[in-house]
Amino acid sequence: MGNPVTFTMRSSRDSKPNLGSCLRVASISAIATVLLFMKMGLDAEPSRARLAILNGISYDQANRSVSIVLHLNDHRPFTLGRLDSGLYVDIENARLSPELLANGAQLAGDRPVQVKTQQLRKDTARVVFQFDAIARIQAAQLKDPSRILVEIDLPDQPTETGNSLSPSVVSYVTNRK
What we know:
Blueprint: H1 19-43, H2 46-49, E1 52-62, E2 65-72, E3 78-83, E4 86-92, E5 94-96, H3 98-102, E6 113-121, E7 124-131, E8 136-142, E9 147-153, E10 170-173
Parallel strand pairs: 1-5, 8-10
Antiparallel strand pairs: 1-2, 2-9, 3-4, 4-7, 6-7, 8-9
């Protein structure tokens, strides 16, 4: 067996205050607190502190398929939702570019899917898709450069009721952090 370890305890009555030790402990505590606050500040992603800008929208149609690309200057999460008049994509922590705001934020033309934009809230940009009928819609986040791709398949025969879309044909992918 090895030598036993002995601990000696002193009471506060027996010990003398060591000012150097107290200052050392206080400075280490202060430094640790500052480092903790700095780490908390660094953990907040800087790109989330400023609003991304929806710079433009491109629209491409081939046969019964429509691809709409929302061009952003930075990656942001989005939500795909349903309205009475169509579907929407809400982009969090984003605003419309001055060009989109100035142009009335609508893609002109006689297209099967109409696209309109609006600044829903000061930190949320909304893109609305209006249509008579669609068979399927899918949205996905793309990076380098930051984009949201919305793919819409149109039905072979438009329905009489308009805005037909069952919940099973809607899907979206977003990379939330």
